């Protein structure tokens, strides 16, 4: 049932504070003249009849009519819970009433006197006493925030009356928003009127360092907008930051920093030898957590006599393996002497195939720290169960700094583009694959003289590409088809347009280099040095290999000198350990692991695995190792 008010009824939807006195006077006049109608029975509400007035819309009803309405099923509000005390709707405004039909009583408008007597000298149904209703309801425009400063503390002082109470006319002195001045206004204008002194706020901001420069305003001050030059806690980075975004509340000039750069702290611990591996943090670093740090860590360049190893302690349980790593050589880069291919532009050939350089390594190599890295290296994850090893992770310790990275983090540390995946885009990949698999690739490329290359007429373009891959990724000795499993994986991948995951190959090669008893040197010298630098390992005071090569020495000369029993110094040998010029991605990434022969064997260029035939399992999703 929908009830509409008659033209003589009173509705207050949309009433503002400016017309409240007019509404109150209009209701009083209609009551005195007997012009108010009950919306239920459509009869005149007389001054002697008991009434009930809605506190929301101020409509007036006969008491017996409203009780009958409250009991009617049509007045029930279904949205209200049944166990609630009242669930009937006002006929005038449909507001839910929180009292039952039995609780409805005839009282005056202010609610103080029940059954007020009829008096011709005052408003019908009024007790004649001061209203006394609190005006502390939130004033118009208060926004519902419940702030006590926006509520009137006074009560209505006019005679008991129908309708809403008029706005408070009391004048009060209130402080402006910044608290500097007191401004006198009407109590009812405390929200609608902007109380401001029009002066700068000058309140201390949350940063605790600067003050608010806005003019006197309502509400909290904005975050500090001052741009300051601040140091991080570990004093490695200095950046311009918004003062309000810095969590640390302290002086910006403090020497130990005021924000975290989220990189490794790297500060020297109390032991004097190790470095803090926590992220950039305030305050002092904790104690050294290494259980074997009861003695000084070994500087890998110091011990020369094996008996001296007992006097040193390592940063991990791998100390017993160090003598084995001390005898190994670190491959600085990659050097392959192939004079027969000098007529081919290797770099252009790779660029034609779609292989491009992806990163710049450190200019030199720190062999002691590289050996330390491999000595403590561990591999997390099972390469047999993980597709292409994307979840593999390398962990190690170098000078007290924890080293940990997976394939994706390796990509980010080395800035390898395209997520480290290179795709061969030659248009004749099928012909290329056919030529690779044919028996003609088994022709020998070495003469009986093992140190001199024999120039071969490379008749077809696919074979040129095949030999470039063979000699510039993982060159082998002996027959041309005796390629490693990794080489077959690479050739198969690029021929079938499958991506080659370089970070995965790097991690697997690093792990295999730590296999006990495996001959060969430690690969990726420059790459590991680059990783240590970008992981904030302190390289100060360490010895480096320089990436330069003697003009009068080459591998042929070194080999002839050794065959004749001549001594070759480490400086002369290390001078040859350098990358192959500006070779592209593959040549710069897959560093050959060069092993020295025993005098009767050929000098071999090994990479990662034994020689195995190409099988269908060497696809992108299989482990090629």
Automatic annotation (TrEMBL):
<protein>
    <recommendedName>
        <fullName>RING-type domain-containing protein</fullName>
    </recommendedName>
</protein>
<dbReference type="GO" id="GO:0000981">
    <property type="term" value="F:DNA-binding transcription factor activity, RNA polymerase II-specific"/>
</dbReference>
<keyword id="KW-0862">Zinc</keyword>
<dbReference type="GO" id="GO:0000977">
    <property type="term" value="F:RNA polymerase II transcription regulatory region sequence-specific DNA binding"/>
</dbReference>
<keyword id="KW-0677">Repeat</keyword>
<dbReference type="GO" id="GO:0008270">
    <property type="term" value="F:zinc ion binding"/>
</dbReference>
<keyword id="KW-0863">Zinc-finger</keyword>
<dbReference type="InterPro" id="IPR046796">
    <property type="entry name" value="Transposase_32_dom"/>
</dbReference>
<feature type="domain" description="RING-type">
    <location>
        <begin position="38"/>
        <end position="94"/>
    </location>
</feature>
<comment type="similarity">
    <text>Belongs to the NFX1 family.</text>
</comment>
<feature type="domain" description="PHD-type">
    <location>
        <begin position="35"/>
        <end position="96"/>
    </location>
</feature>
<dbReference type="Pfam" id="PF20167">
    <property type="entry name" value="Transposase_32"/>
</dbReference>
<dbReference type="InterPro" id="IPR001841">
    <property type="entry name" value="Znf_RING"/>
</dbReference>
<keyword id="KW-0539">Nucleus</keyword>
<keyword id="KW-0479">Metal-binding</keyword>
<dbReference type="InterPro" id="IPR019786">
    <property type="entry name" value="Zinc_finger_PHD-type_CS"/>
</dbReference>
<dbReference type="InterPro" id="IPR019787">
    <property type="entry name" value="Znf_PHD-finger"/>
</dbReference>
<dbReference type="Pfam" id="PF01422">
    <property type="entry name" value="zf-NF-X1"/>
</dbReference>
<dbReference type="InterPro" id="IPR034078">
    <property type="entry name" value="NFX1_fam"/>
</dbReference>
<dbReference type="GO" id="GO:0005634">
    <property type="term" value="C:nucleus"/>
</dbReference>
<dbReference type="InterPro" id="IPR000967">
    <property type="entry name" value="Znf_NFX1"/>
</dbReference>
<keyword id="KW-0804">Transcription</keyword>
<keyword id="KW-0805">Transcription regulation</keyword>
């Amino acid at each position: 049932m929908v009830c509409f008010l008659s033209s003589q009824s009173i509705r207050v939807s949309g009433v503002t504070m400016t017309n409240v006195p007019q509404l109150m006077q209009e209701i009083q006049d209609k009551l005195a003249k007997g012009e108010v109608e009950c919306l239920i029975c459509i009869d005149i509400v007389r001054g002697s009849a008991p009434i009930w007035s809605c506190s929301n819309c101020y409509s007036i009803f006969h008491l017996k009519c409203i009780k009958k309405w409250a009991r009617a099923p049509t007045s029930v509000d279904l949205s209200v819970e049944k166990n609630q005390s009242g669930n009937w709707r006002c006929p005038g405004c449909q507001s839910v009433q929180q009292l039952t039909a039995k609780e409805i009583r005839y009282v005056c408008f202010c609610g103080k006197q029940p059954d007020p007597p009829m008096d011709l000298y005052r408003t019908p149904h009024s007790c004649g006493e001061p209203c006394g209703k609190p005006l502390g309801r939130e004033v118009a425009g208060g926004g519902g925030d419940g702030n006590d400063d926006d509520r009137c503390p006074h009560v209505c002082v006019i005679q008991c009356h129908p309708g809403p109470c008029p706005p408070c006319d009391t004048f009060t002195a209130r402080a402006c928003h910044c608290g500097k001045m007191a401004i006198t206004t009407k109590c009812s204008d405390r929200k609608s009127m902007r109380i401001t002194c029009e002066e700068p706020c000058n309140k201390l901001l949350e940063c605790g360092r600067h003050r608010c420069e806005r003019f006197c305003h309502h509400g909290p001050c904005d975050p500090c907008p001052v741009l300051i030059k601040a140091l991080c806690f570990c004093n490695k980075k200095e950046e311009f930051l918004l003062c309000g975004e810095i969590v640390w509340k302290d002086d910006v000039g403090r020497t130990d920093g005021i924000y975290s750069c989220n990189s490794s702290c790297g500060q020297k611990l109390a032991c004097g030898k190790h470095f803090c591996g926590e992220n950039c943090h305030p305050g002092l670093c904790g104690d050294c957590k290494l259980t074997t740090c009861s003695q000084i860590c070994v500087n890998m360049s110091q011990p020369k006599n094996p008996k001296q190893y007992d006097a040193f302690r390592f940063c991990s349980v791998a100390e017993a393996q160090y003598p084995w790593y001390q005898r190994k050589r670190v491959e600085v880069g990659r050097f392959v002497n192939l004079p027969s291919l000098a007529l081919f532009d290797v770099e252009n050939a790779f660029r034609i195939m779609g292989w491009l350089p992806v990163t710049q390594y450190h200019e030199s190599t720190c062999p002691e720290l590289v050996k330390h890295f491999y000595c403590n290296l561990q591999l997390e994850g099972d390469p047999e169960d993980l597709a292409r090893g994307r979840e593999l992770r390398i962990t190690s310790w170098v000078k007290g700094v924890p080293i940990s990275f997976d394939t994706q983090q390796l990509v980010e540390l080395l800035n390898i583009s395209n997520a480290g995946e290179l795709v061969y885009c030659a248009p004749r990949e099928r012909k290329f694959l056919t030529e690779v698999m044919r028996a003609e690739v088994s022709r020998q490329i070495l003469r009986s003289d093992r140190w001199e290359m024999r120039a071969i007429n490379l008749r077809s373009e696919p074979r040129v590409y095949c030999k470039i891959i063979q000699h510039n990724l993982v060159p082998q000795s002996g027959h041309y088809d005796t390629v490693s499993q990794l080489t077959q994986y690479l050739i198969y991948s690029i021929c079938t347009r499958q991506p080659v995951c370089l970070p995965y190959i790097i991690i697997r090669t690093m792990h295999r280099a730590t296999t006990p008893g495996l001959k060969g040197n430690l690969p990726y010298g420059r790459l590991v040095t680059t990783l240590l630098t970008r992981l904030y390992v302190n390289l100060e005071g360490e010895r480096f290999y320089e990436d330069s090569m003697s003009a009068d020495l080459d591998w042929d000369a070194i080999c002839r000198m050794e065959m004749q029993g001549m001594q070759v110094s480490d400086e002369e040998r290390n001078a040859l350990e350098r990358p192959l010029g500006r070779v592209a991605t593959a040549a710069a990434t897959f560093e050959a692991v060069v092993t020295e022969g025993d005098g009767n064997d050929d000098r071999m260029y090994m990479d990662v695995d034994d020689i195995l035939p190409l099988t269908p399992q060497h696809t992108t999703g299989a482990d090629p190792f």
